[in-house]
Design brief:
The protein is of the alpha/beta class. The chain is built from 21 helices and 18 strands. The chain has helices at about 5-10, 15-20, 55-65, 160-165, 180-190, 195-200, 250-260, 260-270, 290-295, 325-330, 350-370, 455-460, 465-480, 490-495, 500-510, 560-570, 620-625, 630-640, 650-655, 670-675, 685; strands at about 75-85, 105-115, 130-135, 140-145, 215, 220-225, 230-240, 280-285, 315-320, 345, 550-555, 575-580, 585-590, 595, 600, 610-615, 645, 665. It binds CIS-heme D hydroxychlorin gamma-spirolactone 17R, 18S. CIS-heme D hydroxychlorin gamma-spirolactone 17R, 18S binds near residues 336 and 355. Its cofactor is heme.
Length: about 700
């Protein structure tokens, strides 16, 4: 066999050397240079492959083990590197180095969905994880939060039940990544403590437009501890600089078909183009006297603290400025641990948090296969660290000497004695007496106020505007309509909702076509709380094109001047202009020039844009009237409450798509301002909501 014959395999005629350029020499994992990476070692050209082929065996062996168990929850995620800068002096509250005004701390952040597997879609109705690892100079602090400030359950003991019920059903292994099925609603309707979280889950909070446009919350009450050891209670908030923005349900459903990676791609591309996402870190600080005066328990993770009662104070900024170099090494192997805490911050007795302190450490061992997972670069502290823990699978450190125990007197003999505890620098657990953390008998009970399951669910519902309330009612109808156990589950759920709001319960019962059931007994009668604007998405959106994408539909005959003016206007408003044409190669414009498209019409439906403009001449419009994808493009933009700008000649396409005039339907001149909003008032024209 000639040399050329061997090396040409698999390169379409290009030689191996040409394809490789000046690359480094390929070796085995043990450093042996490899002569041929195309052909296994055989006994004769057509004979059996030899066991002796260590190159083949090593390559296949390693490949066979490339996958590790995915996270039991939050399996699908996207990560990014960044920096946190402390912008306010809170040394009176916390001694943590990460909060020293002006300090910059490297971070790694991972956003995730909860229920779906690692390969599932990005846009199901689901809670989003918002986990931040701060590599502080006093060790790693992990703030492992969600995009919703409360949780489904109050006690860690219920977590396996929650997760089993929401994940795909045990026998049939579906549905993937969704709560709209029997077992979830069966369980949730039997657990009134879930009601507040269900209100959030059924709102558009679970349909974020982008990770960049959602809030994050630490959920639990934590403590801040100052240099004198004085503790205060704290809740952590992340506020997105781009404002809040969610999609609507029909749009989210269609996004699943248009782009499984919608949010992953959005994050990657924003960072890649230097459009760095930012959040402000806010704290709500309060003391024991405040905690005791509230009608809820601050240790109950199904409750929030209204921002109107304790305003959020901004103390720093998070900027994500670097994409991972390798998804597996970083985003997959990153291990977040709520138990990663630093001096100046402490846990509260929230029973959900206490359970998490165990779970995350434990799960890393089964996911990453070793107790040494902290040595993986993405998990390793960036400050010096060392102790007397030794050995274990995949040990990569090579500690010298005999000091693997403490106390020792090896130093007295001139040997290295190893590190020692530090009374000044070490983490000190705050005295439990500094909080309402009761200690005493061993009891399997919950504190009294945990029994109030409805007051804050009511607070949330009543803080929404009319459109948001309609979305919540319709989501309950949608989800419960997917439940096969129709006789028992929906009535039970609606019976719970009667404790939240009678009108909501009626709307859901009507939407399902069932009689209004009896109100379920409440373990504790709800109280009315003052509505809070901070709980509404619509009251916290920003009129801006920043971070948003505008789809501009063009075709043969479109006017070059109109296109250029529009692109310039969108870009000067900091938006992203994306040209869509029937052929990706481009459109032949009225001046004879060819304009290349960024996306082909069939693969770029309007749901991937925040607003659309239709820039057509008469000829192009006539052709597109016969294109289902073009009519659908406009129809969906209208149905998804987006601004639509159109050139005069494009009007027939708008008419065919059923577009009716409103503030969001403009000519090209008024489009950029219109595109900064969504048109929720339009919704009754396009769909009936519960
Ligand atoms: Fe988690 N959760 N969780 N969780 N969680 C995990 O840890 C768990 C809870 C959250 O991007 C797991 O490393 C228990 C609340 C995020 O890697 C696991 C309880 C909040 C992530 C686990 C909770 C979260 C996880 C799976 C109830 C919001 C993804 C893999 C006591 C404050 C982190 C892993 C990432 C992941 C357990 C409740 C957020 C199994 C037992 C409340 C963002 O350890």
């Amino acid at each position: 066999m000639t040399e050329a014959f061997k090396t040409n395999q698999g390169h379409g005629g290009e030689t191996h050397q040409q394809a490789q350029g000046d690359a480094a020499v390929l070796t085995t994992n043990h450093g042996v240079p490899i002569f041929d990476n195309q052909n296994s070692l055989k006994s004769g050209a057509r004979g059996p492959t030899l066991l002796e082929d260590f190159v083949l065996r090593e390559k296949i062996f390693h490949f066979d083990h490339e996958r590790i168990p995915e996270r039991i929850v939050h399996a699908r995620g996207s990560g990014a590197h960044g920096v946190f800068e402390a912008t306010d002096d809170i040394s009176d509250l916390s001694r943590a180095a990460v909060f020293t005004k002006g300090a910059k701390t490297e971070v790694f952040v991972r956003f995730s969905t909860v229920a779906g597997g690692a390969g599932s879609v990005d846009t199901p109705r689901d809670v989003r994880g918002f986990a931040v690892k701060f590599y502080t100079r006093e060790g790693n602090w992990d703030l492992v939060g969600n995009n919703i400030p409360v949780f489904f359950i109050q006690d860690a003991l219920k977590f396996p039940d929650l997760v089993h019920s929401v994940k795909m059903e045990a026998d049939r292994a579906y549905p993937q990544a969704g709560s709209a099925h029997d077992t979830f609603w069966d369980w949730a309707s039997l657990m009134p403590e879930t009601t507040h979280m269900l209100m959030w889950a059924m709102s558009d909070r679970t349909l974020p437009r982008s990770f960049r446009m959602m809030e994050g919350f630490g959920v639990h009450t934590f403590k801040l501890v100052n240099a004198q050891g004085k503790a205060s209670f704290v809740k952590f908030h992340w506020k997105p600089r781009l404002g809040l923005q969610s999609t609507i349900w029909d749009e989210a459903l269609k996004l699943q078909a248009a782009d499984n990676d919608y949010q992953r791609r959005d994050l990657w591309e924003a960072i890649d183009t230097g459009d760095f996402p930012q959040w402000d870190l806010g704290i709500q600080v309060f003391d024991e006297a405040f905690a005791e005066a509230q009608p809820y328990d601050v240790l109950d993770a199904t409750k929030l603290i209204p921002e109107d009662d304790v305003p959020v104070r901004i103390i720093g900024t998070l900027t994500l400025n670097r994409n991972p170099d390798n998804f597996f090494a970083e985003t997959e192997q990153v291990a977040f641990l709520p138990s990663n805490i630093v001096p100046g911050i402490d846990f509260s007795n929230d029973p959900l948090l206490q359970g998490r302190l165990f779970s995350y450490l434990d799960t890393q061992n089964s996911r990453l296969g070793t107790t040494n997972f902290h040595q993986i670069p993405i998990n390793a502290p960036r400050c010096p660290f060392g102790n007397f823990q030794r050995d274990g699978k995949m040990q990569t450190q090579v500690p010298k000497g005999r000091a693997n125990y403490e106390p020792n007197s090896l130093a007295a003999h001139g040997e290295e004695g190893g590190p020692r505890e530090s009374a000044e620098r070490g983490f000190v657990t705050t005295n439990a007496a500094t909080g309402p953390d009761e200690q005493g008998e061993k009891l399997r009970v919950r504190a009294e106020l945990f029994a109030d399951h409805y007051s804050q669910a009511r607070l949330f519902y009543r803080s929404q505007d009319a459109h948001e309330q309609a979305h919540i009612a319709s989501s309950f109808v949608f989800e419960l309509s997917k439940v096969g156990l129709l006789d028992q589950v929906p009535p039970r759920m609606v019976g719970n909702l009667r404790n939240v709001d009678e009108e909501l319960a009626k709307r859901v019962a009507d939407g399902l076509g069932i009689d209004l059931p009896e109100r379920n007994d409440a373990a504790r009668e709800p109280v009315d709380m003052d509505p809070s604007d901070a709980l509404s998405i619509h009251k916290n959106m920003k009129a801006t094109l920043e971070g948003r994408a505008v789809g501009i539909l063009i075709a043969d005959g479109s006017d070059a001047g109109e296109i250029d003016a529009l692109v310039a206007a969108v870009e000067s408003a900091k938006g992203k202009a994306v040209l869509v044409a029937p052929k990706v190669g481009g459109a032949k414009l009225s001046d004879g020039s060819v304009r290349k498209a960024d996306g082909q019409l069939a693969g770029s439906p309007s749901q991937i844009f925040d607003a659309v403009a239709i820039v057509l001449g008469e000829e192009g419009c006539k052709a597109l009237l016969k294109e289902g994808a073009a009519v659908q493009f406009v129809m969906d933009a209208f149905g998804h409450l987006k601004a639509i700008g159109a050139s005069a000649a494009a009007r027939p396409l708008l008419d065919k798509a059923g577009v009716e005039p409103d503030g969001g339907v403009t000519d090209l001149g008024g489009f950029v301002d219109a595109a900064k909003h969504r048109y929720y008032d339009r919704e009754p024209k396009v769909r009936t909501l519960a």
